[in-house]
Amino acid sequence: KKKKKKKSGFGKRSFFHRVCFLVLTFLELGISKEEALEALQVVRQECHGDAARTAGGSGTTRKCTALELLEEEQAQGFIITFCSALDNILGGGVQLTKITEICGAPGVGKTQLCMQLAVDVQIPECFGGVAGEAVFIDTEGSFMVDRVVDIATACVQHCQLIAEAHQEEDHLKALETFSLESILSHIYYFRCRDYIELLAQVYLLPDFLSEHSKVRLVVVDGIAFPFRHDFEDLSLRTRLLNGLAQQLIIIAHDHKSAVILTNQMTTRIGQNQSTLVPALGESWGHAATVRLIFHWDNSQRISWLQAFRPWSVQMTRRRSDPESY
Description:
The protein is of the alpha/beta class. It has helices spanning 2-8, 13-29, 33-48, 66-76, 84-89, 110-120, 145-166, 169-174, 180-185, 195-211, 234-254, 281-284, and strands at residues 78-79, 94-95, 99-104, 133-138, 187-191, 215-221, 258-263, 265-269, 274-278, 290-297, 300-305, 315-319. The longest helix has 22 residues, at 145-166.
């Protein structure tokens, strides 16, 4: 494991600090994004010994028909949530190659759902899964490995019950490698303590995903947390967030992965009332393909699939069981 981490660049502490230094330098000195990427290339060439890739890939323009795009999306599949009502409003589950933002107040279950998805993405294809791996980027320190163990154990037991009921050869064979240990070993966890580390991790993530081609889920738990403090220049924050969103879109598309972002809620003061809205402002609201908003209504957890167009329909589903995630 240590060899793999060093090869990808994430295990080299000095390398990571140099990247953080470069990111901090271009933020404070106003260096353009293109110049910053060129500087990152120099560091990559020195540490990896080969030609580095820019965040945008090869830059070639792809030509295809709408029918081909539809067939691709239908073939990619979904990551199920094990909550039928939530899967229904998502059209079958969390879609690959798309960005899904989960918003809600503390304690509503955002991190729990992310940990559930980090397990669900590894379900074998014969059971209806995508047989992938997960990257979990944590900015708030909310990741609980004990809870992941509980979720993974329940998932394995569920698949075992299906295999016993159907007695199909492919099910039984898949269970030979689908275990608690295999699930935990394929969740790659990274802790980011400020926005500099978060930017560095996300911009270096394509290198890591190239080394781990089975990753089908990237979670950024707490996208707003590093950007809500120590930012006097709001225009700079907006530019950084827009660049981060574009990088995540590229990652989702190029690596056929679902990207999950969790966001906090903030209070918007109106003329006669105040309402809770997702943090980071209106411009950030358009970064995600799908935005789910969770909140409590007594003992019921309500999830909204938010519409971004005035003519779209907002849908809601209720979940009465607080322990569903």
